[in-house]
Amino acid sequence: MHASIAVLPGDGIGPEVIREAIACLGQVARTHGHEFAFTSLPVGGYALDAYGVPLPPATLEACLASDAVLLGAVGDPRHDRQPAHLKPETGLLALRKGLGVYANLRPALLHPALASSSPLKEEVVRGTDLVVVRELAGGLYFGEPRSLDQDRGVNTLPYTRFEVERIARRAFDLARLRRRKVTSVDKANVLESSQLWRRVVNEVAADYPDVALDHLYVDACAMALVLRPSSFDVILTDNLFGDILSDEASVLTGSLGMLPSASLGGQVGLYEPVHGSAPDLAGRDLANPIGAIGSAAMLLRHSLGLEKEAAALEAAIFAVLAQGFGTADLACQPARVGTRGMGEAIRQSFSRVAMEVSA
Question: Is 308 tagged catalytic?
Answer without folding.
Answer: no
